[in-house]
Design a protein that fits this description.
The chain has 161 residues and is mainly beta. It has two helices and nine strands, in the order αβββββββββα. It has one domain. A five-stranded mixed sheet has the order 4-1-7-9-8, covered by helices on one side. Strands 3-2-5-6 form a four-stranded antiparallel sheet, with no helix packed on it.
C-alpha cells in the first residue's frame, strides 16, 4: 500500500507527465538590456525520472517554466525578489526557493545541477539533498560566456506561463 501511495504522489507532482521534450523556440541570445530591470535565465539539463517542466515563481507568481532539459527567460524589476521553483503539476509545492538581489541592466544565468558537477567559477545560490536520487542538487550562478555556450542547444517550454 505504501508503494502505491508513493507512486500516486509522484504522479501528482508531475514526474510522469506525457510532455517529455520542450517544444518551444531554441535559445537565442539578445543583448538588449531591460529598461529599468534585470534579465534572469534559468536552465537545467536532464533530471532522471522527471518529464514535466519546473515552474519559476517570482514573489509567488509563476513567470516561466523550465523543461528537462530547457530554459526560461524572466524579466525582473530591480530589487530583492523571492525566486521559487515548483513542479508543473496539480499540486504545486515549491521544492526550492531563495532570495536574490537583482540589479538594473544586469543579466543573470542560473543553472540547476548536481553539486558534484559545479565548476570552480559557479556560485552556489541554494542547494538541497534529494533523497530519491541520493545526491545534492542546487541552483548556481554561472559565468555568462559558459552559460551562453550551454544554453545554445536548449529550448523553451512549449506552454510557457
Amino acid at each position: 500500500m505504501r508503494v502505491l501511495t508513493v507512486l500516486f504522489l509522484i504522479l501528482l507532482q508531475g514526474c510522469a507527465s506525457p510532455d517529455v521534450v520542450p517544444q518551444g523556440p531554441i535559445f537565442q541570445y539578445s543583448n538588449k538590456p531591460v529598461n529599468s530591470g534585470a534579465t534572469a535565465y534559468f536552465y537545467q539539463f536532464d533530471m532522471p525520472g522527471v518529464n514535466a517542466c519546473l515552474l519559476v515563481g517570482i514573489n509567488g507568481k509563476y513567470r516561466g517554466c523550465v523543461g528537462y532539459p530547457g530554459f526560461a527567460k524572466v524579466e525582473l524589476q530591480t530589487g530583492k525578489h523571492e525566486v521559487s521553483f515548483a513542479p508543473n503539476s496539480p499540486i504545486k509545492i515549491a521544492n526550492l526557493k531563495f532570495d536574490f538581489e537583482f540589479i538594473s541592466g544586469k543579466e543573470y544565468f542560473f543553472k540547476y545541477q548536481p553539486t558534484k558537477l559545479k565548476s570552480s567559477t559557479d556560485v552556489e545560490i541554494e542547494t538541497q539533498y534529494n533523497m530519491i536520487l541520493g545526491q545534492s542538487y542546487g541552483w548556481y550562478l554561472i559565468d555568462k560566456s559558459h552559460a551562453l555556450t550551454e544554453l545554445s542547444n536548449l529550448r523553451a517550454w512549449h506552454k510557457a506561463i
